[in-house]
Structure formats: C-alpha cells, structure tokens
Specification:
By secondary structure, the protein is an alpha+beta fold. The protein has helices at about 1-50, 140-150, and strands at about 55-65, 75-85, 90-105, 105-115, 115-120, 125-135, 155-170, 175, 180-190, 205-210, 210. Strands 3, 4, 5, 7, 8, 9 and 11 form a seven-stranded antiparallel β-sheet that branches. The longest helix has about 45 residues, at about 1-50. The protein starts with a helix and ends with a strand.
C-alpha cells in the first residue's frame, strides 16, 4: 500500500512540476506585459497631456417653431452655431461621421448629417447646424408643453445632440480615438412672425455643452 502510493506520487511529481512551471511562466509574462503597457500609457499621458474637447452653442436662431392644432404637426426652422475647441497642444483631431439631432419634449424631431471637421492643436472651429421641416409630435403632454412655453414669451427648450467618430493625429501618425457625444440643452426665444426681413434674432446667451465619451 505504501509502495504504491510512493510510486504514484513519484510518477505525478514531474507532471506537477511541469504544470506549475508553465503556469508560473505564463503569469510572469502576463505581469510583465501589463507593467510595460502601464508604463507606456503613463509616459504617453505625461508627454501629450490629452484634454477633453470643449463645445459651446454661441448663437441660436429659432425663426420658425409652430404647432398646428389637433394634428400636432411641429413646423420648425432652427439654426445653431456650435464652437468646438481642441485644447490639446500636441494632438490634432479629425471628426468624421458627424451627425446632429434636435429634440423637443423628449422627442427627436430632426436629424442632419454634418461635414467632417479637421482641427489643429489649440484650434476653435465653428460648426453651423441647421434644421428645417415638420414633425408630428406624439401625445398630448408634448402639445401641452409647447402651449405652455409659447405663452411664456415664446421661449422653447430644445436639446441639440451631436455624435461623431474621432481620429487623433500625433506627429505623422493617425489613430482612432474615442467617439464623442455632445449635448447642448438650449433655451431659445422664437422670432416674432411679424418682424420684417433682416431683423436680428432675439438675444441668445452662449450655452456650454456637455461632452463625454
């Protein structure tokens, strides 16, 4: 009994040593790779100091925003000048697949595709966004919200949302970056329908937008 156990242990011992040695080798390689990747990431961060882009809605003009009774068809004509600023001093940015959406009372009433944008380091780019058309609002709550805002000095709450894909240019290299999402909650006063052509739009206060990835 004792001899059989001793022989079995002796036969299994080389397999155990080989298995343990293989695992130890794998763990060592993985640990080294993680350490190297971490050090490279820290070095790149300290070298380039990446910062989030800044977005601001500088101007907005709501020249048309009406709702037909009973059918609740929203007719709109909205333009926004959006400023994008690249605060990075060593990273240029290329935006592509850029799209803008406008929301009212939680409902997306318009969508437009925008041209690509190239930004050098420290550069600010003004992106014009324009929406025009009509959209059927769903539900009486949205229509009630419109009537309420129309009574209150015709100031309407519109959400502008921008999505894009990003490429980062570092020296001569271009690498894919995170996909930014920009959210601009705007309060815009509608133009007076009786205003003569060429009249300046109502005052709009520049609005800081939220940017995340």
């Amino acid at each position: 009994m004792g001899k059989t156990s001793t022989v079995s242990s002796w036969l299994c011992c080389p397999c155990r040593c080989l298995f343990c040695g293989l695992l130890s080798c794998i763990f060592s390689v993985v640990a080294c790779v993680l350490v190297v990747v971490g050090l490279v990431a820290i070095a790149l961060y300290l070298l380039f100091r990446p910062h989030l882009v800044h977005a601001t809605a500088d101007t907005a003009d709501l020249s048309g925003f009406t709702l037909t009774p009973r059918t609740w068809i929203l007719r709109y004509n909205l333009s926004v000048a959006l400023s994008l600023r690249n605060p990075n001093t060593r990273i240029a940015i290329h935006y592509h697949s850029v799209a803008a959406e406008a929301y009212y009372q939680g409902q997306r009433f318009s969508h437009v595709d925008l041209p690509d944008v190239d930004q050098d380091t420290g550069e600010t780019t003004v992106v014009p966004v324009a929406f025009s058309g009509e959209f059927p609002l769903e539900g009486g709550v949205a229509a009630a919200g419109f009537r309420k805002e129309a009574i209150e000095q015709a100031r309407f709450s519109v959400d502008l949302k921008i999505t894009a894909k990003m490429k980062l240019k570092v020296w001569a290299f271009r690498v894919s970056g995170p996909n930014p999402r920009i959210d601009c909650p705007l309060t815009i006063q509608r133009r007076n329908a009786s205003s003569p052509p060429g009249t300046a739009p109502p005052e709009f206060h520049s609005t800081e937008c939220r940017v995340w990835f």
